[in-house]
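Example A, followed by Example B.
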Amino acid sequence: MKKDIEQLPQEQFERIHIDSSKAERIEKPSLSFWQDAWLRLRKNKAAIVSMVVLVLLVIMALVGPHLNGHDGTTQNLRHANLPPKMPGIEKLGIMDGVGNLSGKKIDLYAMKKVDEYYWFGTDGLGRDLFTRLWEGTQISLLIAFVAAMIDLVIGVIYGGISGYFGGRTDDIMQRIVEILIGIPTLIVVILMLMIMEPGLMAIIIAISITGWIGMSRIVRAQILKFKNQEFVLAARTLGSNDSKIISKHLLPNVLGIIVINTMFTIPNAIFFEAFLSFIGLGLQPPNASLGTLINDGFKVMEFQPYVLLFPALVISILMIAFNLIGDGLRDALDPKMKD
């Protein structure tokens, strides 16, 4: 067969010319890991909406206390227990200053001769709840972010050293972790608050004492996974020291897991701070946080539900937003989810 083809005259074969400029090109733009992750994150509508909502809440926590001209700590008993009243919206029959008094609906602002607007009403001491809500949100976010950053730093360093060096170092460090994780967190927090004066710093330290354990175990597992792979062996062969290998080669490969875990740590810290404040172990009056505001609202929930409604809504939105962002980051930073 081959000989028959070789004996055919060359004129019977036609040369095919392909125009490379018109040829279909199958190519994908070169993207870095973080650029590709951002493109995938943008496809997650829930995560993007949650990011926008979270940014708006942070902005309101910063500027909200200065919007209506009322101070969150000033007491005015003549203005106590006023329902919400907001200009413009009051004409719609909602947030119009009408409250229940002895089973009857009465305009409490007119009855008490109050010519001011309290957008979210006032508490039993006449303090403006709108201002206190955003001051409390500010404190809760501050505690959560600082506690999460402390957990991040301690957990990454501790887990990185334990996983990289292994052997007896790993055994000793993990026994310490097992001892700490065996002690209930609430007991540790109560002991810390008994030793220290209750306040902002005491809560942050109490949350951070055992909060870093989860991060350290995750980082340790990832370091154990990567430390014997070829790129680490190549770096060690080229003379890189241990600190450079950990910081330049290992940590960038576990950065995605660290970011995801941090995004879930923040709402946990917000909820735990609110829980401590709710049971009376958190911030002390006149300071406000979402937990103290919810505690105050819970006491008068039957007669003044608006005192509980607004802080409960804010903390619920914060928890949902952070968790949806965490889910979106987990999908975006997971190479297995890549299209």
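Example B, a separate protein, is given below in the same form.
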Amino acid sequence: MSGKRSTFLLSALVFGFAFLYVPILLVMIYSFNEGKLVTVWTGFSTKWYVSLFSNDGMIDAAWNSLRIGVMSATLALALGTPAGLVMSRFGRFKGRTLFSGMIAAPLVMPEVITGLSLLLLFVTLEQMVGWPAGRGISTITIAHTTFCAAYVAVVVQSRLSGMDTSVEEAAMDLGAKPAKIFFVITLPMILPALLAGWLLSFTLSLDDLVIASFVAGPGSTTLPMKVFSSVRLGVSPEINALATLIILAVSAMILISSLLILRSERNRSRASSTEEA
């Protein structure tokens, strides 16, 4: 009975991974296809990568997405970290339910509603105070920061809730000020969570299509918008080449972040062992 269950679980695991990763592998393979048809293999070629890097519109859209992603993730980290700290360390306070609901709202709100509401907000602000002067990269960055900060707050809150506070309490007993405790003790301990929140925000910003379509303007086309407009006319191996580069870049970022988190955990374990000794 146990052997049958193990076989079933192994089969389910293999099927699940195949369902997730075989399509990605096929996209990467067909990015080297010589022909224009993405479903018929006609020979090996790298011409679509050359064509991709010669496509100025695609390159400009990629740079826009990278700039917006970095700025949005950084701003979301700056806003979401204090929010997560308040939710995990300040206990019950007046307005906590409202504050918690405002943090959770962007997580469950349909993107169409979020995009439309932000569009109306930007239009109203432009009419009343003259800012923002049209829609562009700045409005997309603000829009992405709005919902990315909620994800960062949840990640930071989860890390702080499960963290041992004995070191912080010892520092307080020794007379350390709250600001020094946060920057010297708390911040290094939640660094893996901050890195995870930044990467999550960057990925969400890079992947967003719906909200960016509402708040974008001339000259601020993002990569998902460019790819979506291209796919409507038919899938090209050039899109496969772009997807392959994105997959490789994301894989490299995940590997680097995993190594950084692992090193941080090892350093913390060594420090704990030294203190015990």
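On Example B: The first helix runs from residue 2 to 30.
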